[in-house]
Amino acid sequence: MTGVMGEEKPASICLTPKLQAFVLADQVYVDALSAKKVICGTFNALWGEKFPTCLQQTSKAYLCMTNCRGQQKIHLKYVDLETGNVLMESSDVVVESSDPIQIQEVVMDVPPLPMPHPGSYAMDAYSQGEQIGSIRILVCQKGESVL
Fold first, then answer.
1. 14-141 has which CATH code?
2. What beta strand segments (E) does the chain contain?
3. Has residue 9 got a pLDDT over 80?
4. Pair 142, 51: CB distance under 8 Å
5. What's the confidence (pLDDT) of residue 147?
6. CA 54 – CA 18 distance, rounded (Å)
7. Cα(57)–Cα(26) distance, rounded to whole angstroms?
8. How far is residue 26's CA from residue 23's CA, in Å, rounded to a whole number?
9. What pLDDT was estimated at residue 5?
């Protein structure tokens, strides 16, 4: 690309974030002194007594990314893998960085998750419409083992 007086102007570079960690948890606390994240009650399985049902609490999603430049819009989709239906889609969270090597940590609220039936579900993370990661969530009848 040519700029004023024939100078080369760098093309705008759009980077896709690289997900280094993606965790669902009951809670994520931020330490007031150190700003460290404390992730409590991680999960990838849920249980219900009868179906359809819903997780009775809100939870958190922790995402740790690199390769962010400029503004990135991050959002989550909760998908029933049996039907392909999107059961929940979060609002966008904007991450801004001028250094793609810098680590970006995001904590997102996850509303109570619907569980129409036992089976496999996924929590997918997206940036600018492109999937950057996924967590499989197994929904079981209460008393069943996930092993």
1. 2.60.40.1930
2. 18-30, 37-42, 45-48, 53-54, 59-66, 70-80, 86-89, 93-97, 104-110, 114-115, 119-127, 130-141
3. no
4. no
5. 66
6. 31
7. 8
8. 10
9. 54
C-alpha 19/C-alpha 126 separation (Å) is 10
DSSP labels, 101-128: TS-EEEEEEEPPPEE-SSEEEEEEEEET
Q: Name beta bridge partners: 71.
A: 96
Q: What are 68-105's pLDDT values in tens digits?
A: 888 999 999 999 999 999 999 999 999 998 898 999 99
Percent of the chain with pLDDT over 70: 90
Place of tokens 């997780």: 55
Per DSSP, 12 falls in state P
Q: Write out pLDDT tens, residues 27-42.
A: 999 999 999 999 999 9
For 87, other C-beta atoms within 10 Å of its C-beta total 15
pLDDT in tens, 102-122: 999 999 999 999 999 999 999
State yes or no: cis peptide before 100, omega within 30 of 0.
Answer: no
Quote the CA–CA distance of 139 and 48 in Å, as a whole number.
8
Segments making up each domain of the chain, as ranges:
14-141
Please tell me the distance from the alpha carbon of residue 122 to that of residue 84, in angstroms, as a whole number. Answer: 10
